[in-house]
Write a sequence for this structure.
């Protein structure tokens, strides 16, 4: 048939091929394949790459603009300005040193070999390795980066503040209106006029329907204007439990009735947040110290102040917090503008308690100044050792030790405190009279502690490592996250990244009770000891920002 294509199966072709005596070889000879022809390569036409590039460049290109020059000049100016500021600050720190030798921080080994006379014999290998972390403060090229990160942190803090404040206003305004006794007046009048003898058979329209009859405006409830007269503050829980210590708490002290409430701010990922009540709104009093039993007033709220609550009065608290009798909350930040405006209007009289607290502060300061001289360049080893030593003595796990335990610890770590100073210290700390004191509080009393600005970065670094919020971090995760690329010793080529990382891990492991993980308390003790030898806050922040990226 014309126009129809026929397909011949391969088996038929094989049959005819065998019939005519064809083989695969003879078939290939008679029917050679047709391949594309490849032209011959003319080697003479090839030229060097430089000549070829010169021929390819067109001649009619437009003239180059000066934008890139302006960007380069702007970047160069910023770097020069940052280095100039760093040089001035470094010159002020070393003004008393008139020698013309190289900077002692350029080579740590040379520093111990030449200049530190009185302390060289006391320093151990771990002390020298811990001091390597202070070298992160020597890099002048992170001044601009610090500023950019600070701006981002300010924006995040303002967003957090607005979110919590809105939730507090919603909760308390709604609760105040619904729970007001005045809500029952109108419904009672209606029921008295139309109620039937048997309420069970009364029509639905005559029964009490509180939800639909709620009045929005009442005479005796809180109003938005009354709730707006408040002082907002940030807080943290004083605890060695990392999960509790890293909770983000925001509190409000209301001026109209001297009450306070505390909320917990939780963030899940980048966009999802949650705000829940942590301490219900009420009027509270001090639970320990010189002011025990006295109601909280506006003057009790300042950065570094402690707020104490009885755990048994708050059944909704987490179980880990209710294990302790007292919940101690430290104020880390406060709305200073609102505080000052309300402080000018209020009148608070100083009493004998204020002078007693001032005397207690003088006792603490005298002991701390003496011990800081003894801790010179050995803060990491001694503070982490003290924490580990007390943890081993604390068999019950409640953090309380007796007087003899603390005296023995001072002897073990060669910390010299006179008997008179120790007795004065003990009278202040043992305010309950039970003969036991929390060892964390004892360490803070005799050594002192870093300010809340520094501690906020310690918490940020640990929270970045503890992304599961378990309160402890495996050593392997710390090893992965720690970055030593920008350490001055690595940049100069004197040490490798691995050497700096191993020196950090070795000193950190010395603070750990377990060989494979680090708790928040141990992490904090490490940087608490490192903070003793760093005077400038921004230098300490660089020590945390650079390796952890916070």
């Amino acid at each position: 048939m014309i126009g129809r294509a026929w397909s011949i199966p391969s088996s038929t072709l094989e049959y005819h091929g065998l019939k005519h005596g064809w083989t695969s070889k003879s078939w290939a000879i008679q029917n050679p394949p047709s391949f594309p022809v490849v032209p011959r390569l003319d080697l003479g036409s090839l030229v060097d790459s430089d000549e070829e590039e010169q021929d390819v460049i067109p001649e009619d290109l437009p003239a180059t603009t000066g934008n890139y020059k302006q960007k380069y000049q702007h970047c160069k100016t910023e770097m020069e300005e940052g280095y100039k500021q760093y040089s001035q600050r470094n010159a002020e720190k070393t003004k008393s040193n008139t020698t013309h030798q190289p900077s002692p921080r350029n080579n740590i080994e040379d520093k111990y070999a030449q200049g530190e006379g009185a302390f060289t014999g006391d320093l151990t290998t771990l002390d020298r390795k811990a001091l390597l972390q202070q070298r992160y403060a020597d890099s002048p090229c992170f001044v601009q980066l610090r500023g950019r990160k600070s701006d981002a942190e300010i924006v995040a803090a303002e967003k957090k503040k607005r979110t919590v404040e809105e939730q507090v206003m919603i909760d308390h305004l709604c609760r105040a209106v619904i729970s007001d006794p005045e809500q029952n007046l109108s419904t009672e009048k209606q029921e008295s006029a139309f109620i039937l003898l048997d309420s069970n058979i009364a029509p639905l329209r005559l029964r009490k329907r509180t939800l639909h009859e709620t009045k929005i405006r009442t005479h005796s409830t809180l109003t938005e204007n009354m709730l707006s007269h408040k002082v907002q503050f940030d807080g943290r829980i004083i605890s060695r439990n990392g999960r509790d210590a890293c909770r983000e708490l925001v509190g409000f002290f209301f001026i109209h009735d001297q009450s306070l409430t505390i909320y917990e701010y939780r963030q899940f990922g980048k966009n999802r947040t949650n705000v829940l009540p942590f301490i219900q709104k009420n009027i509270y009093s001090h639970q320990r110290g010189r002011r025990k039993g006295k109601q909280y007033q506006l003057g009790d709220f300042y950065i570094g102040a402690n707020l104490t609550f009885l755990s048994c009065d708050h059944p909704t608290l987490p179980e880990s917090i209710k294990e302790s009798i007292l919940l101690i909350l430290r104020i880390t930040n406060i709305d200073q503008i609102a505080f000052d405006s309300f402080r000018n209007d209020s009148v608070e009289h100083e009493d004998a308690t204020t002078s007693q607290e001032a005397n207690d502060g003088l006792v603490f300061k005298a002991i701390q100044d003496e011990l800081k001289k003894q801790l010179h360049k050995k803060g990491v080893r001694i503070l982490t050792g003290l924490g580990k030593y007390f943890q081993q003595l604390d068999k019950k796990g409640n953090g309380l030790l007796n007087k003899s335990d603390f005296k023995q610890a001072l002897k073990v770590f060669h910390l010299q405190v006179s008997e008179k100073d120790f007795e004065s210290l003990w009278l202040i700390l043992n305010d309950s009279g039970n003969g036991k004191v929390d060892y964390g509080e004892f360490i803070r009393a005799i050594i002192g502690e870093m300010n809340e600005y520094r501690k906020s970065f310690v918490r940020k670094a640990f929270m970045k490592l503890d992304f599961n919020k378990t309160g402890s971090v495996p050593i392997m995760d710390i090893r992965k996250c720690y970055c030593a690329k920008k350490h001055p010793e690595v940049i100069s080529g004197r040490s490798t990244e691995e050497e700096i990382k191993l020196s950090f891990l070795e000193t950190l492991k010395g603070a750990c009770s377990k060989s494979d993980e680090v708790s928040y308390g141990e992490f904090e003790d490490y940087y608490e000891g490192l903070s003793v030898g760093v005077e400038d806050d921004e230098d300490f922040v660089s020590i945390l920002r650079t390796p952890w990226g916070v």
